[in-house]
Specification:
The structure is a homodimer.
Chain A: E1 10-15, H1 19-27, E2 33-39, E3 43-45, H2 50-54, H3 60-63, E4 64-66, H4 67-70, E5 77-81, E6 84-88, E7 93-96, E8 99-102, E9 105-108, E10 112-114, H5 120-125, H6 132-151, H7 155-161, E11 163-167, H8 171-191, E12 201-205, H9 217-229, E13 233-235, E14 240-243, E15 247-250, E16 254-257, E17 260-263, E18 267-269, E19 286-288, E20 300-302, E21 307-309, H10 323-341, E22 357-362, E23 365-369, E24 374-376, H11 377-391, H12 395-411
Parallel strand pairs in A: 1-2, 1-9, 2-5, 9-20, 11-12, 11-17, 12-13, 19-21
Antiparallel strand pairs in A: 3-4, 6-7, 7-8, 10-18, 14-15, 15-16, 22-23, 23-24
Helix pairs in contact in A: 1-10, 6-7
Chain lengths: 433, 433
């Protein structure tokens, strides 16, 4: 992969430039390690705001940031745009589409991918939202559907075009449902005066008996209430069995007809070939000890969504697959490498500190659970905005996102309703008129 | 196409929502006409700033604007996202990918497309920059090339990857060359410290003996000087004969090896099938009389790049294919339709008023030709910025573009160096390393 070898300097290869990988890459001491960061994109994605890209609120540049721009100190640092397809743990080598690379230490920070739980139909016909291209596809898809709805004289087809089904009642599903409901309320009636926007239906389907499983019961109820007020049909205890591109099949013989199913029902670890299945959980996360080291290999560590550190009491299935554990684990590993690893000093175990969780439902509406108190309504929404704004990397991205949000707040508008790359339907269900 | 017919109201169909078509659509009186605007995109593109999208200075949302958002008065107005493939002038019908439509009056405002002058190789291997997806492809292509240059050990390949050839010395070519030269100077050395950026070569090839043919000789010389100062190799009197994906063949047996050829050497009218060749000029622009009516059909008009109105003295080949004539012709047609057409009153012929032309070369550098005076340097650059900022549609786009420009000015940076959709090379010339 054309990276020079430096004498007496161990090479740390980090796979993945998400919250976890980026944090390590930034903090590792370059006088102790040569750092190689590999990602399949040349940018870091601020995933918590992906739904705003999908719903025409923000352009990708506000939530994406060039990795080469983020990492300013270039000494002993190498970024490579590459896709890793195999790891040979014996030879200590990473194999990518642009060549192979030896590592002294390997840090897996590959994150997670959409989990369809083995259902090929759903994988084929539904729309995921885990990456920027996927969010842009979703944006195109939503807008194209309204353009198509205008053209058809068949009311059955129009109904299916204007019915949106979001599967999964976690933060992603809730935030997406809220944003769609706001488009229905404020934007679409102006854009499509010759359509009856009342015909637009938004369904949020959740398999368990409550929304926002990671949050408090009260916040879940508040989110439910806010969504219903916005006109979202929230279905709890409702398991999706199949989807054929036209009909969502739900247990108990219920079904919903829709051309638009957005799948936000689960994620699994983005594992790379080369590891043993017995080292992973069902959700394809690799098991690590309390120093975030893999159980089998002394020179391979895992952090973020891909890592599963089981603590008996609080996190029997590993930490939540969100930004916070990823960032904290990234910091922990950097600190471990910088101060303990080479000297073989013992280190304290990783301990996750939950700083709170939050979800926004729409204008002036959000819920926040902090360790000692809860918030809802305008204040929660304002804190949500502040936290997400500060989370964005770089002054420019913050300035642009803030400008967009302020204008949207006062104009009741979504700015970027652009179909730049039309999305090709996978299902040929639409007849020509 | 599912558009209602209204008694006693003539239907005007406008094809194309560029500067010309949009102007008519906005200004036609809806109590006199039913207006149908058709475009293959759901957004208007501010083409003069496309080169900034291609060189990672702006995201598309700053220079694109949803057509449904722009046209606020919805009464008797219909926008349809469609691609027109044929016009039947006898039946007075427009045929599109989403159905057909009858017109009482037709206004052609389809603009122009890249002109390869019949050379299939150049069309296949070079990169155009006439639309937002093309500009984004170019952005990905430029960034991917530097990533590839990092990986290769073959200096010959690296040289070809880092050589950029822009063909065409009009405003597009000049502005693109300037922006690339600024990337070379301010951005790339920081992003790619392990590459020798001095190896990057930027060539601007112009077929005629001077740059900026539409501008004054002095401004052309100034642009030439500024580009050379920025390190661009400007070749005048230099005709490109062919390009095979690796070598640009120039007359007099010269050649340049490069994987990156950007074609900005010409445009031609974006004609639709259904018209006679004898009604068009070589550049595929349709001939119109001095009321912008086509010579053969009393109910078909043409405006903007697609229209060719020949005035013997000043514009023997039609007006310049730029934004200004398009906007003025759009206004003229709207005025004609609103006040003269239905009453069959005689109208004054269209007269183009040249308000000035300008081109920017880089930071603090631009040239402006106004009717009575010329400007260069910082003031010209500032006026260029102001004019382009005001030209953008909508407060939001202006705010976002201005924020980007201010940050770039002080940070010497290009913000959006993102490869969101990787560009697939058409030529398999790159060996794996």
């Amino acid at each position: 992969m054309n990276i020079p070898t430096v004498n007496n300097l161990k090479r740390v290869v980090i796979i993945g430039a998400g919250f976890a990988g980026l944090q390590v890459a930034k903090k590792l001491k370059r006088d102790k390690f040569q750092v190689v960061l590999i990602d399949k994109n040349n940018y870091h994605t601020f995933q918590p705001l992906l739904y705003q890209v999908a719903t025409a609120g923000l352009e990708p540049d506000s939530i994406a940031n060039s990795i080469r721009k983020i990492i300013k100190k270039k000494k002993n640092f190498f970024f490579r745009l590459a896709y890793v397809h195999y790891i040979n743990t014996k030879k200590q080598k990473v194999y990518t589409n642009v060549g192979e690379l030896f590592y002294d230490y390997l840090i897996l920070a590959t994150g997670s991918v959409t989990n369809y739980f083995g259902n090929r139909n759903i994988e084929h016909f539904s729309l995921p939202m885990k990456s920027i291209p996927e969010a842009l596809n979703l944006r195109s898809h939503i807008l194209q559907d309204f353009e198509s709805a205008l053209l058809t004289k068949d009311s059955k087809i129009r109904e299916k075009l204007m019915t949106f089904v979001i599967v999964g009642g976690g933060p992603t599903g809730v935030e997406l449902a809220g944003a769609l409901a706001e488009m229905k309320k404020y934007v679409l009636p102006h854009d499509y005066p010759d359509l009856d926007i009342k015909q637009m239906n938004i369904h949020l389907l959740q398999a368990s008996t409550r929304l926002l499983d990671g949050m408090s019961e009260k916040s879940a109820q508040q989110a439910f209430k806010n969504l219903e007020e916005l006109g979202v049909n929230v279905w709890l205890d409702c398991l999706v069995k199949d989807y054929d591109g036209q009909i969502v099949f739900i247990d108990k013989n219920k079904k919903i007809e829709s051309y638009n199913v957005i799948w936000a029902a689960g994620v699994k670890g983005a594992m790379i070939k080369g590891f043993l299945n017995e080292d992973m959980l069902n959700s394809q996360r690799i098991l690590v000890d309390n120093s975030l080291k893999t159980l089998r290999y002394n020179n391979i560590f895992a952090i973020g969504d891909i890592a599963c550190m089981i603590t008996n009491k609080s996190y029997p299935n590993g930490h939540p697959m969100t930004a916070q554990p990823a960032i904290q684990q990234g910091n922990f590993i950097a600190n471990n490498f910088n101060h303990y690893l080479l000297d073989k000093k013992p280190i304290k175990p990783f301990r996750y500190k939950n700083l709170g969780t939050m979800a926004t439902i729409g204008r002036n509406k959000a819920v926040c659970d902090f360790p000692y108190f809860r918030l809802k309504g305008f204040l929660a929404w304002f804190i949500w905005m502040f936290v997400h704004l500060v989370g964005l990397i770089g002054f420019r991205n913050r300035a642009i996102a803030l400008t967009n949000w302020i204008i949207q707040y006062f104009h009741y508008n979504k700015s970027v309703r652009l179909i730049i790359r039309p999305f090709n339907r996978k299902n040929n269900q639409l007849k020509k008129n």
